[in-house]
Backbone:
């Protein structure tokens, strides 16, 4: 019997291609709770026929040509939103995206000449923390599955997101995992809107970098 994919797996496999299936299967144990809340089912999947797919009970492709164009914040597990100013008006991502966070340390190492048995490896002279790199992947969706581009494509959502992506300064980000790490501001490094199957669906892939306030002026007291 083939592997079973749920509706969220179907969506992301369709966005990322059939090579994503192996990754989906490995990450399902960690994503079970998330998969209950993230995205609505979409009736397309570029996978082989032997793969068994769960039928979404709340969707009928033949009889229903409309879907929700957003998920309420209270129904999302880790909702994410942006604002240009602290405490300003927030823009909530219509559907909860997938978030990957990475960071590390910058370490300056020095090799010891003629090191003996007790001097193993390098001398770590100093280190500093790297920025947090935040990868945000998700989709925008229009409410009509079929029709004219002005009726189906999520134009308004894409325009609103693009306002932040082209912003030439840092902006504020709100998401529970980021708050735990102390990340409240980000800048945009890269973004893409890859080809996406479905007339009312547009995928996005964002690369954000954390930004923290620094006081570079030191007041000396005499």
Residues:
């Amino acid at each position: 019997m083939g592997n079973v994919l749920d509706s969220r797996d179907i969506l992301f496999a369709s966005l990322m291609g059939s090579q994503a299936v192996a990754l989906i299967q490995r990450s399902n144990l960690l994503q079970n709770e998330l998969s209950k809340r993230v995205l609505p089912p979409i009736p397309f999947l570029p996978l082989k026929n032997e793969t068994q797919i769960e039928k979404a009970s709340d969707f009928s492709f033949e009889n229903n040509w409309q879907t929700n164009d957003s998920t309420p914040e209270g129904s999302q597990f880790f909702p994410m939103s942006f604002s240009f100013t602290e405490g300003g008006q927030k823009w909530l991502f219509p559907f909860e995206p997938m978030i990957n966070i990475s960071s590390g340390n910058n370490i300056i190492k020095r090799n010891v000449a003629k090191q003996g048995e007790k001097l193993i490896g390098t001398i770590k002279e100093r280190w500093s923390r790297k920025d947090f790199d935040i990868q945000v992947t998700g989709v925008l969706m229009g409410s009509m599955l079929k029709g004219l581009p002005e009726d189906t494509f999520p134009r308004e959502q894409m325009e609103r997101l693009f306002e932040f992506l082209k912003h030439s300064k840092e902006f504020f980000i709100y998401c529970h995992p980021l708050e735990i790490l102390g990340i409240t501001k980000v800048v945009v490094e890269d973004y893409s809107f890859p080809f996406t199957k479905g007339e009312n669906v547009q995928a996005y892939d964002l690369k954000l970098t954390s930004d923290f306030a620094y006081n570079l002026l030191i007041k000396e007291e005499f």
Observations:
- The first strand starts at residue 4 and ends at 5.
